[in-house]
Design a protein that fits this description.
Blueprint: E1 26-33, E2 46-53, E3 57-65, E4 73-82, E5 87-94, E6 98-99, E7 108-119, E8 123-131, E9 156-163, E10 184-191
Antiparallel strand pairs: 1-10, 2-8, 2-9, 3-7, 3-10, 4-5, 4-6, 4-8
Amino acid sequence: VMTADAASASGVKWVTPAAGGAGAGAISTSHASRLALTYSGSSYASKGTTYDVPNNIKVLTVRMPVNTAAANTYKMVIAEVSGATDVIDAITATSDNVTVATTNVTPDVVFTFGAGVSLVAGKAYAFILVRTDSTSTAANPASFPAAVGTSDGFLEYRASVRYASNDPLVSDVTRFATNSTIHMDITYEVVI
């Protein structure tokens, strides 16, 4: 059972499972990729991070900070990707749209996936924050620091995503760079 409650130097934090656990054959945990808040202003509606998945997991939620200078609408897309440019092979899941209210603080936007989204060991997946209320070249103000992503043994950082699309599709090329990542906390169950 993974129970370390303190963040490591890399920003990865294991969360102690709640009493009762996640059910038979699963451990609830969280992957935190929280670095300095640096909001992107580049003209791309889709931004995110790709991970290699060495073990079967089930994603429950994705939480991330977004700059709220305007009331924008977003969705989270989880897509299976492959190759050197992280081409989308299949759309695995899409959240409902979430509209973020204009505030003076940076809220965490939470995307939920009902009973969860199963990710298969040995594959790679892109977690893409998509701005859906404008054009594909509208700025997505996600926190996008110039820092390499974190890995925790269940989600292994691969690359960042940044491209002009507000509706990711099969065959889209998603890879931007291997030296940056988008902020996100991913809650998942480890399938044993």
